Amino acid sequence: MDTLIVIALLTITFWACWHWFLRQWLETTGLLSKVKAKIAAQQIPDEAYYEQASKEIHNGNVREGLWAQAWAEAEGDKTKAQAIYIRLRAQSIKREVASDNGGQYQAASEKTIVPCPRCETKLRMPVGKLLDVRCSKCGHGFRVDTAHENRLEEYPVLADQIIGRIGRLQFLWLTLGTVVAGIIMTTMIREGGLAEPSLLPPNFTTLLIVASICFNLAFIIARLRDADKSGWWSLIAFIPFVYLLVVFYLLVVPGTPRRNRFGPEDIGLFV
């Protein structure tokens, strides 16, 4: 039983560290992208690499250095040289896919035309990306997915939205501030002479508790929205003993790195 508890604690600690700083550090150093690139290279069948090399020969777009190497190994036999080139070029493409580009060596130079939904200005965008775009002519902002037939998505209107988005650090300070304020108010009421009914307005304690719950619920919703999750999930915090798990989860889970359906990432607690 003790072993299971230790394993569970280590797993939770690693999960928290991964989401809080470890993954970001690996992405900054480039180690994570290299691992992803090698995995992506292994998932692509060798047939695709050979097909790409064959197309290069057919189109006359060969790598001079590799072709010279294949020609030398074939001792001047053109047919044999083509076969050797295909083998060498397939290996070369596989190494390119496993490089830091994460297998995007082909799509990196490819562009597509995306018209602005407001002024029809033609904008050049990279292929295979989910992009937050602002039109260079009219300034209209929208989202486009060039990996799925240039699918456009308009940003939601936030005029009627009250609660925005907050990150993990802001959520941490708000949570700590709420705990400290609760301790101070409780001390003042019990020991500071404010417990006399004549010194407090009617139902003061009840109003204070309701206000605290509403404010606490507001920044839980804002943190959920930062992770692109519905604010309705905040209701599970009212389940006994679940509140601490909800707070721990929201302190760890990262927010979406770009604008989501609840607005930009730096919108704040209240819109």
Mind explaining what this structure looks like?
- The chain has 271 residues and is mainly alpha-helical.
- It contains 8 helices and 7 strands.
- The protein has helices at residues 2-29, 31-43, 46-59, 64-74, 78-97, 168-191, 204-226, 243-252, and strands at residues 111-115, 122-126, 130-134, 141-145, 151-154, 163-165, 268-270.
- Mean pLDDT is 78; it is low at 100-109.
Give, in order, the helices and strands: HHHHHEEEEEEHHHE
| Overall residue-averaged pLDDT value | 78
What structural class results from the helix and strand content? mainly alpha
- Tally of contiguous helical segments: 8
> Which range best describes the helical content: under 10%, 10-25%, 25-40%, 40-55%, 55-70% or over 70%?
40-55%
What Rg is obtained from the alpha carbons, in whole angstroms?
29 Å
- Note the main sheet: 3 strands, antiparallel
As laid out across the biggest beta sheet, the strand order is 3-4-5
Low-confidence stretches: 100-109
- End-to-end CA span: 48 Å
Strand content: 5-15%
Count of spatially separate domains: 3
How many β-strands, per DSSP? 7
Structural shape: elongated
Write the layout of secondary structure elements.
Elements: H1 2-29, H2 31-43, H3 46-59, H4 64-74, H5 78-97, E1 111-115, E2 122-126, E3 130-134, E4 141-145, E5 151-154, E6 163-165, H6 168-191, H7 204-226, H8 243-252, E7 268-270
Antiparallel strand pairs: 1-2, 3-4, 4-5, 6-7
Helix pairs in contact: 3-5, 4-5, 6-7, 6-8
